[in-house]
Design brief:
This protein has 15 helices and 4 strands. By secondary structure, the chain is mainly alpha-helical.
Length: 377
């Protein structure tokens, strides 16, 4: 490989990028826009669930039970009603997600030491959120029952009213903040989008503009041409990585417990594979429109849906789980979250690192073998 010819292609591609401010702005603004939108807009934390209440008992005991929901961080009481018609209207309009009906004689059941029925009506149109809301309801009721039992046992002057003392301890994300989970995974999505989408246009653009014939007439070799075009986008990708890391740290306060050197090295490997995938798509398609569509189908959608970024892989059907092993972002997201939140090193991330290296080697081999210095009709 001749470094002089490679540098000439690098300079040519860099000048071409600088003369296309829209592409450059796209490459530098996408990380900022995505991190702001996902960091502030996408949250897996469900709280302030709108709750409507019909208290038919209306006693001190029932109000004390309601107080457990009022003081909960997860529920927001939107009003008190006295009929099912109003509750149904609120659920139909999605103004309330949960309606609670406390029947008459609720206090009598409690004082008689019997199970007091309480009706909970959930809007199940969003099954995942409804399931989480139901879990919060069960948690609040469980705490109420536990406190009731403890007070009852204390009144019986027992020595140990709570024989089981569970003390949970959460590692890596003590406050269950979804931004700590989302932002590291978002880096993989950003790098895959930038890498595959931008480089997928580079060689296809040469064919459409008719400049590829000029490059073919030169003594430059296929590997030199590919590496020369690869270089500027690699620099842009590393700048995007720096932007994402800095915004995650100083804008969202995501903890970084690992090695920054390890993050840069492994990100470089993933970025290399993603860039080479985009170049391979550009070589195969020879059309910017077709290249962009192929890039979205092969990079953005699999990374967003099948990498574990938004949906847990273990919750997918088995045949879908098997497909996820072919998605390189799956391994990179594990690396990012391991470095960010757990502070682990290569010893723990060895398998994922090896998969990224294989991904980079395969895409590089495909791109260099596919590109031929000849004009085909």
């Amino acid at each position: 490989m001749n470094l002089r010819r490679t540098k000439a292609v690098f300079n040519k591609e860099f000048i071409q990028i600088m003369r296309d401010p829209r592409s450059l702005a796209l490459a530098l603004l996408i990380p900022i826009v995505l991190i702001v939108l996902f960091g502030y807009g996408l949250s897996l934390d469900i709280n302030n669930i709108p709750l409507a209440i019909w208290d038919q008992d209306n006693t001190t005991v029932s109000r004390d039970f309601i107080l457990n929901f009022k003081n909960s961080y997860y529920f927001k009481i939107i009003g008190y009603y006295d009929n099912y018609r109003d509750l149904q209207r609120l659920l139909d309009k999605s103004d309330a997600m949960l309606a609670m009906v406390i029947p008459k004689h609720f206090t009598w059941h409690i004082q008689a030491k019997q199970a007091a029925p309480v009706q909970m009506i959930l809007d199940g149109s969003d099954s995942n959120t409804a399931n989480i809301a139901l879990g919060y309801v069960n948690s609040v009721v469980s705490i109420y029952n536990s406190n009731f039992m403890v007070n009852a046992l204390k009144n019986m002057t027992l020595v140990n009213p709570t024989p089981i003392d569970v003390r949970p301890r959460v590692w890596f994300n003590q406050d269950f903040e979804s931004k700590n989970f989302i932002v590291p995974g978002l880096i993989a999505v950003i790098m895959m989008i930038i890498a595959a989408l931008l480089t997928s246009l580079t060689i296809a653009r040469e064919w459409e503009r008719g400049t590829m014939e000029q490059l073919i007439a030169t003594p430059i070799r296929p590997l030199e041409l590919i590496i020369g075009k690869f270089g500027p986008y690699f620099v842009i990708g590393m700048i995007d990585l720096a932007i994402a890391v800095l915004m995650g740290k100083f804008v969202f306060g995501v903890p970084f417990r690992g090695s920054i050197v390890l993050l840069v090295v492994l990100s470089s490997i993933f970025l290399t594979g993603s860039l080479m995938l985009g170049i391979f798509i550009s070589i195969v398609s020879k059309s910017q429109l077709m290249a962009s569509q192929m890039a979205i189908l092969t990079s953005f959608l699999p990374t967003f849906l099948l990498s574990g970024f938004t949906y847990e892989i273990f919750n997918m059907p088995q045949w879908v789980q098997d497909i996820t092993y072919l998605i390189p972002a799956r391994y990179f997201i594990v690396i990012l979250r391991g470095i960010y939140l757990k502070g682990v090193g290569v010893r723990v991330l060895y398998d994922e690192t090896l998969c990224l290296i294989v991904f980079a080697l395969i895409t590089t081999a495909l791109a260099t073998r596919r590109f031929k210095k000849k004009i085909t009709v």
